[in-house]
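Justification of resources, computational component.

The compute hours requested in this renewal are based largely on the per-chain cost of generating structure records like the one below. Each record pairs the submitted sequence with a full structure-token output. That output is archived, and it is also reused by downstream analysis tasks.
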Amino acid sequence: MGSQAVVENAKSLDDATNSTDNWWSFIETQKFWKGLLVLGILLNVIVILTSDLGLDTHVRMAEDENGYLVWGHTRPIDTQSSDPSYAPENLNYDFTFGDSEFGIKIISLVIMGLLIGLAGSSVTIAGNGGEKYRLRAAAIVAIYPTFIFSTGRAYYEPIISALIIICVIPYILWEIEEQKSKRLLAILISTLTFSGVLIAKNINPIYCLIFGAALVLYFVIDNFAPNITRRPVKAATITICSITIAMIGYGILGDKGTLSIINDETGRFFFALLVSAIDMILIYSLFGMILWPFVGSAYKYIVEVEDLKASILSIIIAGFTTAITIYVAALWTFESVIWYAEWPWIMWTMGNNGRYISLVMIPAMMLIARLKLLNPELPSLAEPKGQAKSLAIGIMLILPLSLLASIHGQTFWTDDAAEVLDNNMEDAEDFLFIHEGTLGMHYLYTFHTGIDDVDERNITGHWRTPDSGWQEEMLGVTMDNRGNLSNVKWVIFSPSTDWIDEVPEGWSMNHRGSADFMNGGGDWEIWSTQTP
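The structure output for this chain reads:
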């Protein structure tokens, strides 16, 4: 026995020596993770200083007190033009963080800070771990490029992710396997919290009852078929199939909404579905969330394990991933049709919709931690084991994207154009913005934010595509479902657009500027009836 102990001690010493000789040995030190967390927090602070608000945020800021978009809906009836009189939706479920751009960014940063803290705590609870889990999970979330991107643009991904944690944490924190009272309380908490997710996405919160009903059904089935509900792969597979059938079926049979495009453009949709799956699962999830070092060993174990908590996490991850992947594919297809956008390049333009999948990031980390608790031999953030090198590589691959998302941020050339209008427009004047169909209405609303006191000054912005016949409207021709251009005194041409016919008498160029490479490049121009 003594000689065996000596051999084992010598082997352990050799392993430790080899570990410190490896270039990736830093991944095992808490000092590295503390530094990574500090870096992640710093990048989130920097991004609120370097980045403009996102297009969706600009649109939300343009809503009046009743929820109407003051210059017209972002999906107008005539898809080549705006119409200020067409603002049919008055859901009033959406919310904003105020009117001050800097104030909105500060709130966005605070929410991201809370999410980082929640991430560390929830993964620790799921893995019954300590400081390693808390610190490492928080650091990975802090450097996730999607969250940095969303923080700078004041998008809702961090707050939605935080709400999803609150949805699932009761099932992991409590021993609900046999405690039915705790199950009911957990379902109630999840249902109410999920209503907040719907509100953030401007969806009627009453639909949270469907989510609650699905949870009730799950636990009813668990009473007589635990061999299904407590087997994560089986439960996740049933969830994926059910959601896929429901959403595609609704798209084929429905006659309105984004999903209805499935019936009209079936071939285009299924091609978009393939791209969406690659975007969501491979790029934004496995690569972006640095999950790929752990999924192989986790999957080998999860196909055998029987565990209620692992099943719940698997259902949440599989269900939301399926729903988001299908929805984004339908959204790309729908937008390409209504804006007459070039296919399939619009999917590149709208590729950042992949950020929606960020809501499953922390549940995925919780699942890996839970599996590690059930099988100590599995690698995890707390003990990467044989995946330490892969984890180090994953972090190094992500950091350049994190730095780019933070330091470069997002800018719009329309900010500079809006400043020109702000300084030169008279009260009660209108302007016309010429821009291609894709996101044209969204870019129009960046002017609403960029012009001070725009509503009090009674300034109205209009948008037209280059080939919409807008110049005829400028001469007095009226068209249905379009705003009246008779009061337009300013015209803003986006790069690669210009007057179609000869320049009308009385118009002259007031300003010319250049869009940088990240904004597509080219020169934009402002023309007016004023003397420059």
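The two ends are 95 Å apart (CA to CA). DSSP finds 21 helices and five strands in the chain.
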